[in-house]
Amino acid sequence: MEDRFTYGLNPEKLGAVSSYLCDQNTAPAEFLLVKSQYHAETGRAVSRGALFFQIRQAFLPGEVTAEEANRIGYETAMRWTKGKYQFFVCTHTDKAHIHNHIYFNATAFDRSRKFHNFIGSSFALRRLSDRVCIEHELSVIQNPRQHSKGRFLHYGQWIGEKPPSAKQRVRLAVLATLEKKPTDFADFLRLMEESGFAVKQGRGGVISFLAPGQEKPTRLRASTLGVGFDTEDIKAVIAGERPLPELPEELTVPPRRVDLIIDIQERMRQGKGPAYERWAKVYNIKQMAAALLYLREHGLTDYAALSASTEAAVDRAHKLAGELRDTEAALSHTAQLMGAVVQYAKTRPVFDGYKAARYSKKYLAQHEAELSDYRAAKAAMSDLLGGAKLPKMDALKKQRRELAEKIFRKEAMGCAFIEGGYLCFEEDCDAQVALRELMDKKMIQAPVNEHFGPGAYEAVINSSVQIHHPEYWQAREKAISEQNRQAKKKGRER
Predict the structure, then answer these.
(1) Burial (0-12, 13-18, 19+ Cβ within 10 Å), 126
(2) Residue that terminates a domain, selected from 158, 193, 219
(3) Rounded Cα distance, 49 and 116, in Å
């Protein structure tokens, strides 16, 4: 550590230096102090993992001064660490290109977490650095070469450092405990306690685990932790009747959208002050930088290419909207026909009886309602068929299922039931699945009002679906991932 820091602070190379939550001259001791405090509070070995991380950031020759480069490096480090880790920035001027060496502690200053490098971190860091440089009107590398042949995750999946959730920590601990081959469920709970989790038993035999530093316990059940993590599932694994449950992937953070820039003059006329004006200017610069970076990454800097891409997206949206309307109409027609067929089948014996009674007035008076339903069903069938032959009920059911699958995934349809020829979702826990499907198909929009800000309504829907229908959620995430993969593949082919 000290050798690396000595290199960064070499006065023959150093043009500027800045630090955060530490003094660059005593950084090794301060970094180790935080690590020792972390070790004392958590009991985890300090030697495990990296002690610190280093970032290198270079600039085009003659574009910035050492002081400007240092300020940009400081901003990059602050946004990368989110102000949770100690760091210092050394700006070197010994080369033709001014460059930064950024060193940050692997342990958070409040000892709440450790920074773990992740797949695609170099790409995420480069993207952040490019955005900061664009905001400061500096050059960035166009179409940089990827030194890895591996696949990179979407930016929104790995931007920033995020520790495992409480649920994921429990899942990992459960799997690690099961790998120790406990003799029975009591032995399993004992091993969980030894690993640092407090075991709590609630009413009805509900088992919960409380991790160190966690305020709310996590229940051991499938609706909370996912498939395979129920008490009965764990007992079956211990008995050798089932394999170890699969660890579900942590839900990723959706990418931040590029919003429209703020009309500062209009806001000032509304009574906003100088502080708001300064904030809005910085905000607009960041939004324009994000938009420009997106255009560069997707090869849309040429106006003709951007216009063609926009027109293609609009045409595709219109096409999909038309297909959805046609599907909805066909589905409604099939449902109505099925309802008429069912009603006709129910009332046909009554009409046969009326016919056998030689259209008796007495029989008519006794079964007037049923005969009226029969006539209505027959008239509806005739109108819907338009002279065509009546298909069999099995064929109608198959047609309805195929049409419904164009709007709803089969996993979503598994959360519903059929009544009166319609696909029905229970109000309490199942309706959210239908809403999620309709929003995915762009058939409805999430409301934005005084009760729900942008994205808030979808967050509520997503949370409910994840809790009550984890199987559907996993299938949806897998389908979306596959669609994105296919779209990227087609883009590369073009």
Answers:
(1) middle
(2) 158
(3) 8
Phi, psi of 216, rounded to the nearest 5 degrees: -110, 130
**Over the stretch 68-90, which tens digit does the pLDDT of each residue have?**
999 999 999 999 998 999 999 99
342 touches 386 (CB < 8 A) = no
What is the chain's percent helix, strand, coil content, to nearest 5? 55, 10, 35
DSSP state at residue 24? G
Strand partners for 424 = 417
pTM over 0.90: no
Nearest Cα neighbor of 223 from 198, 248, 202 is 248
30 and 109 fall within a common domain? yes
User: Strands of 207-210's sheet, edge to edge?
Assistant: 198-201, 207-210, 218-219
Number of domains in the chain: 5
Residue-range definition of the domain harbouring residue 394: 320-407
Q: Please count the residues of the chain.
A: 494
Alpha carbon distance 80, 103 (integer Å):
12
What is the Cα–Cα distance from 455 to 257, expressed in whole angstroms?
A: 11
Report the Cα 231 to chain-centroid distance in Å: 28
User: What does the angle CA 411 – CA 415 – CA 418 come to, to the nearest 5 degrees?
Assistant: 110
In the chain, which stretches have pLDDT less than 70? 1, 44-49, 118-120, 141-164, 213, 248-262, 297-301, 303, 305-306, 313-314, 316-324, 327-328, 331, 387, 389-393, 395-407, 418-423, 427-428, 450-451, 491-494
Which residues does 241 contact at the CB level (< 8 Å), separation at least 6?
none
Backbone angles phi, psi at 371, to 5 degrees: -65, -35
Beta bridge partners of 89: 18, 102
